[in-house]
UniProtKB/TrEMBL annotation:
Its EC number is 2.3.1.269. The lineage of its organism: Bacteria, Pseudomonadati, Pseudomonadota, Gammaproteobacteria, Alteromonadales. This is Apolipoprotein N-acyltransferase. Pathway: Protein modification; lipoprotein biosynthesis (N-acyl transfer). Belongs to the CN hydrolase family. Apolipoprotein N-acyltransferase subfamily. InterPro entries: Apolipo_AcylTrfase, C-N_Hydrolase, C-N_Hydrolase_sf, LNT_N. It comes from Colwellia asteriadis. It is a multi-pass membrane protein. Keywords: Acyltransferase, Cell membrane, Membrane, Transferase, Transmembrane, Transmembrane helix.
């Protein structure tokens, strides 16, 4: 965030750092609230740490919805490559976050209670015998049970396959234009940029589906009709489909939208493909604050260039939208930041969804950790919902992920390149994909009840 504000926001370094401090203070409110509620709801004189995991989970939910939500870097994403990732198809990333806290609380309480017991009974290293060893186990019985159940469950889930291959595949070409953010919206760069994407595509028409990144075409849809007609005809003639990020202005509603549009083949017998305002498109719902819309804009826009960035006046698309169709495949699109919202993905997932698609322009974040974090979040979505995921970006990270959250193909960052690969399609559904909201609240309720039961037993 500092990179985007400092390099593209036009603010002095001191102001940028102040904004980062304010953001950190805001995000710190949620773990603070979880800790406060844990202490507040503990009914005995000693803090009941078992309350922390479910209350942290509740506060993470609040973080994902308050002020449109900022669910970035929840703890569970750190386990995408660990044994705990087998829980993602069942309880999602938020559930893994709760498990991480549960494990840490278990270890902390074990160490504390053991130390406390040794001190109270004045047991030294040379005083251990069978009777004292048995007594030492009493303070850690509950933690041992928790860890044993978790280990057993992890082992069992490792051997369960929720999703199976359908035997079908599709060829994908992901175009990474590597357009510098500093020149992306300059009028004189409009045609060079559009011609670059067309040139990179020409050699890859043998792919079933070609994907361009978010806002790959740096002009509004009404102004690009001649260009779009040419690209559409080329895709139709080559029996291919092109999916691109495209900005639109609706003359009837007088609103701007950040969209994803399909050109060329909707299905095998499609002979028309794209036409202006056709329905085979998606409009971004979760807009990025400041970058795509400015809250209290009448007050904030005059203050600094940061609040008046190019393309920062978008309107939200509907929360629930139909999957887009390309070469007969049903594709669930997510635009940039939206991949961090599993509940929105769930709302648009159908039994016919073949692929999850996310397009982005992470050039805003330079060479920071941001694009890598973004890619890991996308990998978690593929694992949670049991679908292959395709990610096309302007300058990285562009790649494909299978239904197990494993990276199957990837391009290096900051290079102009095309990634051509084959995506294996699957069938089936994960438990989490069927009811993520219900699973979240059941987890919170179950862990709260269990925590209070443990507290009552200890009294």
């Amino acid at each position: 965030m500092h990179v985007s504000i400092d390099q593209f926001g036009g603010l002095p370094l001191a102001v940028s750092l102040l904004l980062m401090l304010l953001l950190c203070l805001y995000l710190a409110l949620y773990p603070t609230l979880a800790a406060y509620l844990s202490a507040r709801l503990s009914s005995n004189k000693q803090l009941n740490l078992w309350l922390l995991p479910p209350l942290w989970l509740f506060c993470e939910y609040l973080r994902s919805v308050v002020l449109t939500g900022f669910p970035w870097l929840s703890l569970g994403y750190s386990q995408i490559d660990s044994p705990l990732n087998v829980f993602a198809p069942v309880i999602g990333e938020v559930g893994i976050t709760a498990l991480i806290l549960l494990i840490n609380v278990t270890l902390a309480l074990s160490a504390y209670k053991l130390k406390q017991h040794l001190a109270q009974n004045k047991v030294g290293e040379n005083q251990l015998n069978p009777s004292t060893s048995t007594a030492l186990l009493k303070p850690i019985i509950t933690p041992l049970i928790v860890l044993s159940v978790l280990t057993l469950t992890t082992t069992l889930l490792t051997n369960i396959q929720w999703i199976s291959p359908s035997g079908k595949t599709t060829s994908i070409a992901l175009v990474q234009g590597n357009i510098a953010q500093a020149i992306k919206w300059k009028p004189e760069q409009e045609w060079p940029t559009m011609l670059k994407y067309l040139d990179l595509t020409r050699a890859n028409y043998d792919a079933d589906i070609i994907v361009w990144p978010e806002s790959a075409i740096p002009t509004l849809e009404p102004a690009a009709q001649d260009y779009l007609a040419t690209v559409n005809r080329s895709a139709l003639l080559n029996n291919s489909a092109i999916i691109t990020g495209l900005l639109n202005y609706n003359f009837e509603s007088k609103k701007y939208f950040n969209g994803i549009v399909v050109l060329g083949k909707k299905n095998e017998d499609d002979e028309q493909g794209y036409y202006y305002n056709h329905s085979n498109r998606y409009y971004k719902h979760h807009l990025l604050p400041i970058g795509e819309f400015v809250p209290f804009e009448d007050f904030l826009r005059p203050i600094a260039p940061l609040f008046n960035l190019a393309m920062s006046s978008f309107s939200s698309g509907d929360y629930v939208q139909a999957n887009i169709m390309a070469k007969g495949l049903s594709i669930l699109p997510l635009n940039c930041f939206e991949v961090a919202f599993p509940h929105q993905l769930s709302a648009n997932l159908t039994a016919k969804t073949d692929i999850i698609l996310t397009v982005s322009n992470d050039a805003w974040f330079g060479k920071s950790h941001g694009p890598h974090q973004h890619f890991e979040i996308a990998r978690m979505r593929a694992l949670e919902f049991g679908r292959p995921l395709v990610r096309s970006t302007n300058n990285g990270i562009t790649g494909t992920v299978n239904h197990l959250g494993e990276v199957t193909a990837i391009l290096p960052q900051f290079e102009e390149a095309v990634l051509k690969t084959t995506v294996a399609l699957v069938k089936g559904a994960t438990p989490y994909s069927k009811a993520p909201q219900l699973i979240l609240w059941l987890l919170i309720a179950f862990m709260l009840i269990s925590a209070k039961a443990v507290e009552k037993r200890v009294k």
